[in-house]
Amino acid sequence: MRKAVNLVFITVCTLAIVAALCVLPQRLCFIDGADYKFYCGTSSKDCKTVDVCGNAAVERLCLKNVCGESAVYENFNLEDFLTRFDGEIVFVEELSDSVNYYCRADLPYSVNLYGEEINLHISVRGGTARAGSPIIFGGY
């Protein structure tokens, strides 16, 4: 009887771990990006950037007040990226070394910029881009 209880316990724990591994990556905005960052705080004024050193999904579990995320993409294609997130460009800002796209997209975070709800910020520099939701805090 005791062996059966132990076997059931081990089976339930194994299923819970497998389920967690399947669900955790879905909580991230940008599952296939590199140089992942979380933004933690209650507003942009107190926002703290947390660089991910290991698994972003696991690290997110240890963070409080997550108010945004960002990741870097090599060989970036803007149209494909916008399609993936059902995004639309609201306005564009051209700088000397990059172009910033402020968008509406199917992402969980948002801010109000210039009277518009923005929840995707993409900064493109050459063929590389950093995407952030709601925006990229701390520069790129």
Question: How is the largest sheet built, in terms of strand order?
Answer: 2-1-3-9-8-5-4
Question: Quick check: average pLDDT?
Answer: 85
Q: What's the shape? A: elongated
Q: What is the helix/strand order?
A: HEEHEHEEEEEE
Strand content: 35-45%
Instruction: Give the low-pLDDT segments.
Output: 19-26
Helical content stands at 25-40%
Topology readout:
Elements: H1 2-23, E1 34-40, E2 48-51, H2 56-61, E3 66-73, H3 78-84, E4 88-94, E5 99-104, E6 111-113, E7 116-118, E8 120-125, E9 128-133
Antiparallel strand pairs: 1-2, 1-3, 3-9, 4-5, 5-8, 6-7, 8-9
Task: Give keywords.
single chain; 140 residues; alpha+beta; 7-stranded antiparallel β-sheet; 36% strand
Q: TL;DR of this structure?
A:
The chain has 3 helices and 9 strands. It has 140 residues and is of the alpha+beta class.
Structure explained in plain terms:
It is built from three helices and nine strands. It has 140 residues and is of the alpha+beta class. The radius of gyration is 19 Å and the shape is elongated. Mean pLDDT is 85; it is low at 19-26.
